[in-house]
Write a structure and sequence with these properties.
Elements (H helix, E strand, L loop, with lengths): L2 H19 L1 H13 L8 H12 L1 H6 L5 H20 L6 H31 L1 H6 L8 H25 L5 E3 L2 E4 L2 E4 L7 H18 L3 H32 L8 H5 L1 H37 L18
Antiparallel strand pairs: 1-2, 2-3
Length: about 325
């Protein structure tokens, strides 16, 4: 059994121990993912992180060193936060206690990895390690802010789309009066569940198809207006269906559970963004190669074919 195998074994045992330590909060987290659709994505986050760790195992092994000091410090911060939440039973809301508990558990897992594999390997595994933070529920104040932001954005998108369809309407805040129907853009209409799913999808797509930090950041940023536009399109589409087809559409299963087709539409809108960023990366890379050829400067990743011959050759 080589050293890397022993490190993975130690990491697995450490994660198992941390899971046992936080068994109570993790059980509450599981119940939250079942009870609240906003957090239905939580079970998939560790699986995605494990996949990317497995996919990068070779480069992790090549950069693996033993660096217990920094990792132990990070793990101690995680343990300290976990202890703190246990002492703040009356000060924190139950939801925020779960948030702090899971956040501390993620820090503990990251510290364990850093201790066993070292900082260079941790940099190579930065995406799967940082991606674990998506398993942490939003704290209450942040959740309310995000929901409010998406609600306002969806209302503005709805306003714009109604104007483009030439449907007469009167707007008062989040309420739209159209012929024979009153429609309110409620907080749940903001699409926070699909918005989170789209951000996660953009991160994974960026990791799989893009190589530059700037293009990955732009892809994640693009997911926000796509989410807002998709929400507005859904609201306007259902409203027009209620006006011209059947008013019962607004109370139908299509309204309550019809988000999947619109999420598919959002993915379809994201695909050309990924393609455009991929092309932009290739274009910049090609320009760099052409510039290197013209100036005679070595191009990163190429061997020095232009080096002089060795003496006596």
């Amino acid at each position: 059994m080589n050293s890397n195998t022993l490190k993975w074994l130690g990491f697995g045992l450490g994660v198992a121990g941390a899971t046992l330590l936080a068994h109570g909060p993790l059980s509450q987290l599981r119940e939250l993912s079942i009870r609240d659709e906003m957090y239905s994505h939580l079970p998939f986050i560790p699986l995605i992180s494990v996949y990317f760790l497995w996919a990068r195992r070779r480069v992790i092994h090549l950069n693996s060193t033993c660096s217990p000091r920094g990792g132990i410090l990070l793990a101690l911060v995680g343990l300290g936060l976990y202890w703190a939440q246990s002492q703040l039973v009356t000060s924190l809301q139950p939801h925020d206690r779960i948030t702090l508990s899971v956040f501390s558990l993620v820090l503990l897992v990251q510290g364990l990895f850093l201790s066993l594999f070292g900082p260079r390997a941790a940099r190579e595994a930065a995406f799967p390690l940082l991606f674990l933070f998506f398993v942490v529920p939003f704290p209450t104040f942040l959740q309310e802010w995000v929901v409010s932001l998406l609600q306002r954005g969806s209302a503005e998108a709805t306003d714009l789309l109604f104007r483009l369809t030439w449907v007469p309407f009167f707007r008062e805040g989040f309420v739209f009066q159209v012929p024979g129907i009153s429609v309110e853009v409620a907080p749940q209409c903001g699409g926070i569940r699909s918005g989170i799913a789209l951000v996660i999808t953009s991160l994974v797509a960026g990791e799989l198809f893009l190589t530059k930090g700037w293009s990955r950041i732009l892809l994640v940023i693009a997911s926000v207006p796509i989410t807002v536009f998709k929400n507005g399109l859904r609201i306007v589409g259902l409203t027009l269906g209620a006006i011209y087809i059947d008013p019962r559409i607004l109370d139908s299963e299509l309204h309550r559970s019809g988000g999947i087709p619109f999420f598919g539409l959002a993915l379809a809108m994201m695909a050309p963004v990924v393609w455009a960023l991929y092309r932009a990366e290739n274009s910049r890379r090609k320009s760099s190669v052409d510039l290197g050829d013209k100036t005679g400067a070595p191009v990163p990743g190429e061997k020095g074919e232009k080096q002089g011959k060795a003496p006596g050759a």
